[in-house]
Copper oxidase
Amino acid sequence: HHGAAPAARSAPAVALPEGAPLPALAPLANRSRQAGRFVGELVAAPARVGLAADGRSTEVWAYNGSLPGPLIEVYEGDTVEIDFVNRLPQPTTIHWHGLPVPAEQDGNPMDPVAPGERRRYRFTLPADSAGSYWYHPHPHGHTAEQVFRGLAGAFVVKSRRDPLGQLRDVPLLLSDLRLDEHAAIPPNTPADWMDGREGDYVLVNGALRPVLTLADGERVRLRVWNATSARVLRLALPGYETWRVGSDGGLIEAPRREAEIVLSPGERAEWVVTGRAQPGALVALPYRRGKMMSAEVDETLTLASLAPAARVASAPLPRRLRRIAPLPAPAVRRQIVLEENMADPKAMFTLNGRVYDMARADFVGRVGQVEEWEVVNRADMDHPFHLHGTQFQVLARHDGRGWRDEPYRAWRDVVSLPAGHAVRLRFVQALPGMRMFHCHILEHEEQGMMGQIDVR
Ligand code: C2O
Ligand code: CU
């Protein structure tokens, strides 16, 4: 049913240097001296950076000239103020992906910042919100391009009572990069608009196959962001002892022995990994997501190398991490159906049969009310589902044959939804306002696979 056979993957046009030590994410400076307050500035602007191995520079769009954007690190309960300046040739916004910020501070498509303008985003982080979030543009019609040109950064909320606070904390932000023969970032092709754009390279903190040094016996906490537009990353650390400890919205209740983590676009995870005496690698295993025009990833990609160092002793992992109360029975149930309609170029990617309209509320909800949504992917491609403004709990997943209860509780804001699958999830919106929900393949979101709930 997919028509012509997908094209073969082509070789990258430009070589990148590889194998340097893992770059740290540059932190955003806090200009406030007041406890509990973070004040920073982000400027989105074109910048020239050296990416190609042959010394040619590349124009990217970046926050504060940095690729990826600066790391924002704050604590639960902090008030965050970000002075934002748009020096791009297009309107933009900053969306605080996964964070429970007021709707008018969340960089919604209806609140654009025009070229040359500035605005201040301001919000206070609630208690128990520690986790690995991110920020990226969300303007109507320009989101995919602004992200693939480089606009995305990590946002970490820490807890002062973190049961894993003694571990080395290593953020790994995974992004995609494609360069043409001029070492420039090319626009999307028709295949990208269909399948979602993938690059020639998956970068880790902006670097190709960097080296993370991990002492034999040392436990580290890896926070991993899938900040690619469209890739599903089946991550593994072959030969290492790996425990999943967190999801999008922070720690899970107890460590789980998970050797493989499937991260769909927009999703995050936390993993505790123990170093060993031999070298190793963080890899992405082959994954087919039903692409129609471009080639599937049938090879294992090495994302980063792990280099050993002299043995150290590490304390054992705590047995319990956090309590996550189950959400009670819902007041409202809704169904969300994701579909593809290749016959209509104006409505190829739909949600409940329609494309996004920022003037229309698809649903009306209530502050504090438990909602249960069954999200069904009736399409031929995977479509990762994302909700703004809150975190949800997945209750069960349907794999096309039957429902299976989710084996553990976690707070998430993106859930992987393979073709023909469904999920059942529950959430509460604590704040009023318009909240988007959409496919996080940014090319699909931009073509209208998005809706909004007006929470009152
Ligand atoms: Cu990460 Cu609506 O976005
Ligand atoms: Cu999609």
Remarks:
- The longest helix spans residues 143-148.
- The chain has three helices and 31 strands.
- The pocket of copper (II) ion (ligand 2) is lined by residues 349, 383, 439, 441, 444, 449 (CB under 6 Å).
- The domain at 37-158 is CATH 2.60.40.420 (Immunoglobulin-like).
